[in-house]
Amino acid sequence: MTVLTKGGNGFVPSVPLRIAVRGRAMDAMALLLTERGLVRGDADVVFHGQPAHPNGAVRLARAEDGTDWLELALPTLEPDVARVLVVGSTDRGTLRDVPGLGVAAFAPDGTPVAHYDVTDAAGETAMVLAELYRRAGGWKFRAVGQGWAEGLAGLATDHGVDVAGAGSGAAAGTGAGAVPQAPVAPLPPAFPVPAPAPAPALAPAPAFAPPPAPAPVPIAVPAPVPPPHPAAPVPVAAGPAGDEVWAYGPVFAPYTQTGRDNEVITVEGLPPGPVVVQLEVPEAGYTGLGVLDRRNKEKENLVNSTEDHYFGRVLATVPSHGTLRLRLEAEGHWRVEVSPLAAARRLSEEEAQFQGPDVLLHTGGVADLAIHYRGDSNLIVNVFELAGHDDHAALPEDENVVNEIGKRRETVPLTEGPLVVQFEMADGPWRARLKRVQPRTRPLFGDGSPANPWQVPAPPERKGWFSRGN
């Protein structure tokens, strides 16, 4: 878990997150903002009087202990939503009187991914506790801790909410962007929120300054190379059967390391299970990557390439002790990123471009996978069928569906998801898309929940904008 101080930020996995707003008698709210820092309409305000966004990507509910929980399905947020503000307010005194004021984010399996304790609250009654914002194809969590002297109405107004209109016409569903909403089912018992060691308060940060740009990756390229690849896998929100939530494998903040020439890379503290390892070596020469066991012997070879500019994403499994050790052989600079399986790209009916080996997810029904491979070497494609496989610490046995050499067009049948589709070997550019996709016939992960647990049915009468709504 990343414990943040005011102004700090860090990447979180691009998966559905549950965010607890902590503190006695605190009300939570979420504001969905565009790049301009404004809501698009009333529907972009999620609070107790309107506890779900129309597309189901953000929901609010109160647990039995009184804690407000926001559920954010990050992969299903619309592309024009650039930031989500997590807001807390109280109508019982001021925020300096609220013990334990803070916010904590958790992955679907309960793994804590970010935590921020507010230590400098003053006489305000409303505060932006944190924000989630897009960065480098993923999402970052920033500890904000900025209060509003004008209270919740002032905070909302500053972000484009028509508070006056919301109190009258919008309550009847006539406000700008107002969409009737549905009741949200109560959350299951809240995940335990560990109490982190107190961190020193930093100087207050500006309320909504643009998030700091990430540090550039120091990869020197001595000669021209193909266009750069994304720094991280970009989750494709809409699968062929809707915005299903991927819930297999461990989740954690991505780990990135850069370096030069041969290296042994050690990543500690990971939850056991399958992960995606992305490797880029821009310079010519041999590239090899293998997994080491506890005796420092290579137990699995992941990469064996002589490409001038190597780029690929491969599967590895974190052992039960939580430490992944990789032996890298490279000539020149390199960049390695270890990400959750849930952050891999999803197959869809829109044709996508790829380069090198990759790991893809299929969440829809029975379909055909069309592949256009333009490399000269071996193309190997394996499929891992996850239906009925409950062990998240290991993938099931794979089925090899393609093993050919040279340029070719190939169409292979896929069973109903969830599937992991691994392009184990692919030395050049290729394209892939789904065809003849059938509707799903069962829940995505067989737990009795609907295939899209974020979808909400249709709405009750809204309560006042800033009511607690017990």
Explain what you see.
- This protein is an all-beta fold and 470 residues long.
- The protein folds into three domains: 171 residues, sav2460 like domains (Lipoxygenase-1), CATH 2.60.60; 89 residues, Jelly Rolls (Sandwich); 108 residues, Jelly Rolls (Sandwich), CATH 2.60.120.
- Helices cover 3% and strands 39% of the residues.
- It contains two helices and 29 strands.
- The strands form six sheets. Strands 1-10-9-3-7-6 form a six-stranded mixed sheet, with no helix packed on it. Strands 2-12-11-8-4-5 form a six-stranded antiparallel sheet. Strands 21-23-28-25-26 form a five-stranded mixed sheet, with no helix packed on it.
- The longest helix has 8 residues.
- The protein is globular.
- The two termini are 31 Å apart.
How do the strands and helices of this protein lay out in sequence?
Layout: E1 2-4, E2 9-12, E3 16-22, E4 27-33, E5 45-46, E6 58-62, E7 68-73, E8 83-89, E9 102-106, E10 112-117, E11 126-135, E12 138-148, H1 151-158, H2 163-166, E13 255-260, E14 263-267, E15 273-281, E16 287-292, E17 298-305, E18 310-318, E19 324-329, E20 333-340, E21 345-346, E22 352-355, E23 358-362, E24 367-373, E25 378-385, E26 399-405, E27 408-414, E28 419-425, E29 429-435
